[in-house]
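Hello,

Our lab assistant flagged a job as stuck in the queue for most of the afternoon. It eventually completed. Since we weren't sure the result was trustworthy after the delay, we are filing this so someone can double-check. Below is the sequence as submitted and the structure that was eventually returned. Let us know if re-running is recommended.
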Amino acid sequence: MKLYEIRPHHGLCLSFFRGKGYSSEFVKHMTQIKAEVGKNPIVLLHSRTDEICSVCPHNKNGLCESEEKVQRYDKEVLRLCGLDQRTEIEWRLFEKLLNGNILDAGKREEVCGDCEWNAICK
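-- returned structure --
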């Protein structure tokens, strides 16, 4: 099974993804990623462009146009979940940590409330 490289904050994005995105290509790709992580692969958490970013219009030569902001999101997700950069973890365990430490704890807006997609996640 493929090892998916995922930005930590993208775990939150995948939790709320409902078929909306930057383009039809992005939505199709995100739908495929969501289906793949549903099979519980091992994911490698790292704070650089990942599989999801590969079709994002904000990905400019492998760097996010909002790099400072998304680095902050990634750092906060890792901190709240008690994980380190470059952690390899089963998707469902990561999802459980996201739910318990961020979503169920009411801390999602604290992590990424200034995201342009914030309204979808409420």
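-- support follow-up --
The delay was a queue issue, not a problem with the job. The result is valid. The helical segments are 10-16, 24-37, 67-81, 91-103, 108-112. The chain is about 45% helix and 10% strand.
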